[in-house]
Amino acid sequence: MHHASDSINKIDQVKAHLSLLGQLYSLEGPKEKFRAKSFQDAVGKITRLFPDGNTLTLTKIDGIGPSLIEVITQVLETGTSDRLQSFSTKYPLESFTMTIVEGIGPKTALKFHADGIHNFDELVTAALAGKTGRHTANILAANSKSHGRVPYEIAIKIAAKAIELIQQTSN
Questions:
Q1: Could you give the C-alpha distances from 169 to 22, 83, 162, 163, in angstroms and in order?
Q2: What is the Cα 149 distance to its own chain's centre?
């Protein structure tokens, strides 16, 4: 039996998948600029047109052509797509977990990866150690949002780091 919550989870999965593909295409340079934008635009259209997770009329979304429908269908059926698998041989996909932080896009995430910070959890650890420069405050904010309540041990470290940053900017 098909439940509405199953559709919503699938739609969220499709949106996350398309968003990641859009970010990956944006790294491919000017020749893929249009394709990157079409994937990002598709995420917005799906969000607006299917707030309840209805996937039955997917082929009727204006601006989503056969190529995107193919990717969406693959994601719905298998949880991934050939395109994402192709990119996974070129880019370290776990580094894109860092793009949930405001101000960190695909290029910055790849720079952090090259510096030995491979995913969002490692990014938070680096921020607490003062190794993320101007991104520190946004990283700590994203971390608190992603976990809801912040455990005391982490809150103390965040507060200490925030005080240190405030003192540095005050001097």
A1: 36, 44, 11, 10
A2: 21
